[in-house]
């Protein structure tokens, strides 16, 4: 068994649904989506026009699902989509699209290019045209349990470290807890501050929470590579654990696509509604804050700005919450241009950061974010996605900028009123 | 002696009638602008026309209502349109000429003989082909008179919708078998000046062009001078902004009509009618139908009278009845069902053919 072009084309035929058919038939070829895409604005290369990245899928739609297309195909007037063509399109579909969804916001006929790229990747993956690095990451996620190859003992080591640092016990496998906390590999390896901050905040707020041994990983490489069968397997681990532990809510960590995978794609992949809620950590923190359970003291004097992670803000609707939290603890909070729903991507979402081939293009495209950060005149950048964070840290280093990137949960924990000490 | 002062020239004739050179230049400038010629052509035109011999013109009227002649002559004196009769020698026109009976016919014969190959033939009215006796002049059928007179003409100007496209006489059921000039004459240049009636200045413009250049102006595919019939009424209509904003009058006496909103829904044919009414206007530039509150009826288009109801919006079906519409809806729905069924089976076949993707299957075997 291996990937074949036939499987890829069959997959294209399978994913084309009513929204995709209406999107393709209503495209007016205005090209406005190009100006919304950072890979186009930073390169000026017309091949990065979002709708163009979908051309092979569009041809399959035309040939298989439109009357004229079928006649044209029968008469041999239109060429079938070839293997070589998909190979040529691979960098457009994976390297130059972060699934950020900005193009969908400017499309005058409301075409959701992100939805289509996500679906198109199904056929790309099935035909063997997914980037090597993403295949490797997905393989690790399926076989080991995490795209970065992390197993439970590594998490356990971090838990011990956090317990020693904070003096707070981290609950594991506690049945009947209100919240199941997930993490991303990035947080386990690079940003241990997250778990530490969370245990302190939850202690103060009196939240009942737990970690699960077999479902600590929130990320979903199946979504990024575009293989729903694999995405389903990965998401089902979380669903099974949440239902076993009878939690009321699963908290998606500071990670963009994990939220999309669990909150929006999850029930569709499983084919049934969840018995629990899914919330992003910022939503939970905002609720605690509103309920008066999360109390802070003092304000950060540094000028701060906030980067909206695309999947959390534009695709996820979590926009007001980080601002309410930031206004509580920041003296000088400055918005970037186009902040909120029209924010500009860090350039590394949707699997781009996991794809080493895309690195030069990603760094070139980071120039837009660089300019935005510079426009605010701040040297402290807050965000709520570990992937955005690492991508921006790399970009800032590449352009020799002295800007510190901090996760919002972590910043919040710094200004927490610690009850023991009072 | 200047050419314009030669006895018998247009210039001399104008002088005799008290038309000043300034007035004449104004006329030439206006005509130049209407014909979309460069401004410098006004002077050229003035010299050419004033030095020219008055052009011999034979005007034949067939199945018509004399409205075209009325349009040309009923302009306010001393307008530019009046001057037309100083530019030409109207040798035969049975409404306007003084001669009658055999004397009138002799005038036509001698004009044809004296100016053979040089005279201009103007025709208004359609020609009955059902029976020659439906319309005769001095015992000569319209068809015979047209063929005979067209033979020696330099060019033919078909004036009015009847002469250009058949007009009212040709309307269904066309009892006289009416046809247009261009249906009969095939070997002469024909300038179509449609309209019921045409705008006077269009007439004078075409004549001035012929006198100046000795040739006919540039025509579109329906034989109309492009300078007058190049754009639709709709494109040059002062109510166009309301159309663009979707502001329509729903009846002739509603508030929207009083506000001067677009008359499209009341059947205005402006969007499909090519004419200069919206720019040249009527009655000495006073107004045009849409400006006085009525939609354009499309009088200068082919099949005028046969192109559907005057008060039905262009977007409404003209001939379909309820049964036909119902049938079309049913046929469309059936086609939709068939296509949907086909597409669905196509998609479910793809679903059936789906092999569960495993990590081993993300790569090619040969890799």
Q: What are its keywords?
A:
heterodimer, A: 422 residues, alpha/beta, Fumarate Reductase Iron-sulfur Protein, Chain B, domain 2, Glutathione S-transferase Yfyf (Class Pi), Chain A, domain 2, Rossmann fold, 3 domains, 4-stranded parallel β-sheet, 8 strands, globular, B: 367 residues, Cytochrome-c3 Hydrogenase, Chain A, domain 2, 5-stranded parallel β-sheet, two-stranded antiparallel ribbon, 16 helices, 9 strands
Describe this structure as you would to a colleague.
The complex is a heterodimer of chains A (422) and B (367). Chain A has 422 residues and is an alpha/beta fold. Helices cover 52% and strands 8% of the residues of chain A. Chain A has 21 helices and 8 strands. In chain A, strand 7 (380-383), helix 20 and strand 8 form a beta-alpha-beta unit. The longest helix of chain A is centred in the last third of the chain and has 18 residues, at 359-376. The model of chain B has no long low-confidence stretch (mean pLDDT 86). Chain B has 2 domains: 54-228, NADH:ubiquinone oxidoreductase-like, 20kDa subunit (Rossmann fold, 3-Layer(aba) Sandwich); 233-352, Cytochrome-c3 Hydrogenase, Chain A, domain 2 (Irregular), CATH 4.10.480. Chain B has a 5-stranded parallel β-sheet, with helices on both faces. A two-stranded antiparallel ribbon of chain B has the order 4-8. In chain B, strands 5-6 form a two-stranded antiparallel ribbon. Helix content of chain B is 40%, strand content 10%. Chain B is of the alpha/beta class and 367 residues long. The N and C termini of chain B lie far apart (99 Å). The interface between A and B is medium-sized, with 28 and 21 residues.
Helical amount of chain B: 25-40%
Radius of gyration of chain B: 28 Å
CATH class membership of the largest domain in chain A: Mainly Alpha
Mean pLDDT value of chain A:
93
- Cα radius of gyration of chain A in angstroms: 22 Å
Total E-strand runs of chain A: 8
Most strands sheet of chain A:
4 strands, parallel
- Provide the number of structural domains of chain B: 2
CATH architecture of the largest domain in chain A: Up-down Bundle
- Class based on secondary structure composition and strand pairing of chain A: alpha/beta
Output the CATH homologous superfamily of the largest domain in chain B: NADH:ubiquinone oxidoreductase-like, 20kDa subunit
Content of β-strand of chain B:
5-15%
In which order are the strands of the major sheet of chain B placed? 2-1-3-7-9
């Amino acid at each position: 068994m291996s990937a074949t072009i036939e499987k890829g084309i069959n997959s294209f035929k399978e994913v084309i649904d009513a929204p995709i058919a209406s999107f393709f038939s209503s495209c007016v070829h205005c090209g406005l989506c190009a100006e919304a895409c950072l890979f186009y604005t930073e390169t000026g290369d017309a091949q990065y026009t979002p709708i163009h990245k979908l051309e092979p899928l569009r041809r399959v739609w035309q040939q298989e699902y439109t009357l004229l297309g079928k006649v044209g195909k029968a008469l041999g007037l239109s060429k079938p989509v070839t293997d070589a063509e998909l190979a040529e399109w691979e960098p457009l579909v994976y390297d130059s699209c972060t699934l950020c969804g900005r193009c969908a916001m400017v499309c005058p006929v409301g075409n959701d290019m992100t939805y289509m790229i996500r679906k198109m990747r199904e056929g790309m993956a099935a035909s063997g045209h997914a980037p090597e690095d993403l295949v490797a990451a997905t393989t690790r996620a399926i076989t080991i349990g995490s795209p970065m190859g992390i197993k439970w003992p590594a998490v356990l080591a971090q838990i011990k470290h956090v317990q020693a640092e904070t003096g707070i016990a981290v609950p594991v496998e506690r049945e009947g807890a209100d919240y199941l906390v997930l993490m991303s590999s990035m947080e386990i390896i690079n940003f241990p501050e997250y778990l530490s901050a969370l245990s302190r905040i939850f202690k103060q707020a009196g939240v009942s929470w737990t970690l699960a041994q077999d479902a600590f990983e929130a990320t979903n490489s199946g979504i990024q590579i575009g293989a729903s069968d694999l995405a389903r397997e990965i998401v089902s681990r979380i669903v099974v654990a949440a239902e076993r532990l009878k939690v009321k809510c699963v908290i998606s960590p500071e990670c963009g696509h994990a939220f999309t995978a669990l909150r929006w794609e999850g029930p569709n992949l499983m084919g049934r509604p969840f018995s629990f809620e899914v919330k992003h950590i910022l939503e939970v923190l905002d609720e605690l804050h509103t309920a008066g359970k999360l109390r802070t003291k003092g304000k950060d004097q540094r000028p701060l700005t906030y980067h909206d992670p695309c999947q959390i803000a534009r695709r996820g609707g979590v926009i007001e919450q980080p601002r309410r939290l930031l206004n509580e603890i920041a003296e000088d909070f400055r918005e970037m241009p186009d902040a909120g729903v029209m924010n500009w991507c860090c350039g590394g979402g949707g699997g781009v950061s996991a794809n080493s081939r895309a690195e030069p293009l990603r760094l070139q495209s980071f120039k837009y974010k660089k300019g935005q950060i510079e426009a605010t005149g701040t040297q402290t950048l807050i965000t709520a996605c570990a992937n955005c964070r690492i991508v921006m840290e790399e970009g800032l280093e590449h352009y020799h900028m002295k800007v510190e990137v901090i996760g919002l949960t972590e910043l919040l924990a710094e200004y927490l009123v610690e009850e023991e000490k009072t | 002696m200047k050419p314009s002062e030669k006895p018998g020239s247009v210039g001399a004739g104008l002088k005799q009638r008290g038309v000043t050179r300034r007035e004449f230049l104004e006329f030439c400038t206006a005509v130049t602008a209407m014909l979309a010629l460069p401004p410098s052509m006004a002077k050229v035109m003035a010299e050419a026309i004033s030095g020219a011999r008055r052009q011999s013109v034979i005007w034949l009227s067939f199945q018509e209502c004399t409205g075209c002649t009325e349009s040309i002559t009923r302009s306010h004196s001393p307008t530019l349109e009046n001057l037309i009769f100083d530019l030409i020698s109207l040798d035969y026109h049975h409404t306007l000429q003084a001669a009658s009976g055999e004397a009138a016919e002799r005038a036509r014969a001698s004009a044809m003989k004296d100016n053979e190959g040089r005279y201009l033939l103007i025709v208004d009215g359609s020609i009955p082909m059902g029976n020659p006796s439906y319309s005769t002049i001095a015992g000569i059928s319209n068809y015979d008179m047209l063929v005979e007179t067209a033979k020696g003409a330099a060019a033919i100007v078909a004036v009015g919708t009847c002469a250009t496209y058949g007009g009212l006489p040709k309307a269904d059921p066309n009892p006289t078998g009416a046809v247009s000039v261009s249906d009969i004459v095939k070997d002469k240049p024909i300038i179509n000046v449609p309209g019921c009636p045409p705008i006077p200045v269009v007439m004078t413009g075409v004549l001035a062009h012929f006198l100046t250049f000795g040739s006919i102006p540039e025509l579109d595919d329906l034989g109309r001078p492009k300078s007058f019939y190049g754009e639709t009424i709709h494109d040059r209509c002062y109510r166009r902004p309301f159309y663009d904003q979707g502001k329509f009058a729903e009846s002739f006496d509603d508030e929207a009509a009083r506000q001067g909103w677009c008359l499209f829904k009341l059947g205005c044919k402006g969007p499909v009618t090519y004419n200069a009414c919206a720019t040249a206007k009527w009655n000495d530039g006073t107004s045009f139908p849409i400006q006085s509150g009525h939609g354009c009826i499309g009088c200068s288009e082919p099949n005028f009278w046969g192109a559907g109801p005057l008060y039905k919006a262009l977007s409404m079906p003209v001939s379909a009845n309820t049964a036909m519409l119902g049938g079309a809806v049913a046929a469309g729905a059936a086609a939709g069902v068939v296509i949907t069924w086909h597409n669905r089976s196509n998609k479910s076949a793809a679903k059936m053919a789906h092999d569960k993707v495993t990590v081993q299957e993300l790569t090619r075997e040969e890799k």
